[in-house]
């Protein structure tokens, strides 16, 4: 409320108005040039507020003001009074460990975020009887790599204690926290055959209504995409988040094919990486130029030439 006695008092010359515009009350707008249309008011930027819960059960919280995945996890942790390192990954619009609903590089403006936090730790001894273990690895963008898919009939599939959604914390007592998913996939691929090794895994915390809902394998087209032609918040590994239109069906299909190639060649799935590669391919007139472009921005992956050629063909 205003104080009594300020009623009728006029602002002094040069004092800002209460709305911060800095213009005297009743002052006229500068006249528009003759014949020119009146300026349009700026488009109001939507207030990006998202709702979140802990997947095993919690009250609903509200988060805003993040620009990347690490900041998102920090905001969720602040709401629930936990450490950001407790969060293994997030799913959109479901509390289940559903790899089709995994939070990737985009969040729809109406998506509800469920955070899956650390549960029990377990150690599993594995003997590599084949070159491929049958694991597909992804990571949460904030330091944890976890199992996104288990191939039917594979070495890992025969171990009942290993499940989709388990975070890989250590290989032979060597911590891999902070490693990217492709680094973990490379370590597992380079382990010698016929020699046992130990995986230390952390499973997501369970609620009573989640028992029996987890699947040991996940084969799903179009996984990792949150967009459906509506506005989405695009989270980038480098740079600020941007508000964009959701991907078109053709862009979603191209990203899905590239994601399938990533799994086939490298044993990883990464929707954000696939989308980045699709964008690079659209701006490259040839596979050779695409290879140079990928080397400049994603050189740490060391993509082989035949893989880049298949990406070019897919897009």
From TrEMBL:
Residues 1-44 are annotated as: Disordered. SUPFAM superfamilies: PDZ domain-like. Residues 24-37 have a biased composition (Low complexity). It holds the Pfam family GIPC1_GH1. InterPro entries: GH2_GIPC, GIPC1-3_GH1, GIPC1/2/3, PDZ, PDZ_sf. PROSITE patterns: PDZ. Residues 123-190 form the PDZ domain. It comes from the Eukaryota. Belongs to the GIPC family. This is GIPC3 protein. It comes from Rhinopomastus cyanomelas (Common scimitarbill). The gene is Gipc3.
């Amino acid at each position: 409320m205003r104080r009594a006695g300020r009623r009728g008092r006029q602002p002094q010359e040069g004092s800002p108005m209460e709305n911060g515009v800095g213009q005297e009350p009743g002052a006229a707008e500068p006249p528009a040039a003759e014949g020119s249309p009146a300026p349009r008011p700026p488009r109001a930027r939507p207030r990006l507020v998202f709702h979140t819960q802990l997947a095993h059960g919690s009250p609903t919280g509200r988060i805003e003001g993040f620009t990347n995945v690490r900041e998102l996890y920090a905001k969720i942790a602040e709401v629930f009074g936990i450490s950001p390192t407790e969060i293994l990954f997030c799913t959109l619009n479901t509390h289940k460990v559903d790899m089709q609903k995994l939070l990737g590089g985009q969040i729809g403006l109406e998506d509800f975020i469920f955070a899956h936090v650390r549960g029990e730790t377990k150690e599993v001894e594995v003997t590599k009887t084949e070159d491929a273990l049958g694991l597909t690895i992804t990571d949460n963008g904030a330091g944890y790599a976890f199992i996104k898919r288990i191939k039917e009939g594979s070495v890992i599939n025969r171990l009942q204690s290993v499940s989709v959604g388990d975070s890989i914390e250590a290989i032979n007592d060597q911590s891999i926290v902070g490693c990217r998913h492709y680094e973990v996939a490379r370590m597992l691929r380079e382990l010698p055959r016929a020699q046992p090794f130990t995986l230390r895994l952390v499973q997501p915390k369970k609620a009573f209504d989640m028992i029996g809902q987890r699947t040991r394998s996940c084969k799903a087209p179009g996984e990792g995409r949150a967009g459906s032609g509506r506005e989405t918040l695009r989270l980038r590994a480098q740079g600020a988040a941007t508000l964009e239109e959701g991907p078109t069906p053709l862009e979603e299909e191209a990203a899905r094919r590239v994601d399938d190639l990533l799994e086939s060649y490298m044993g990883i799935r990464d929707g954000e990486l696939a989308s980045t590669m699709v964008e690079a391919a659209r701006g490259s007139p040839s596979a050779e130029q695409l290879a140079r472009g990928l080397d400049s921005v994603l050189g740490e992956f060391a993509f082989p030439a035949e893989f880049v050629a298949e990406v070019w063909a897919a897009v």
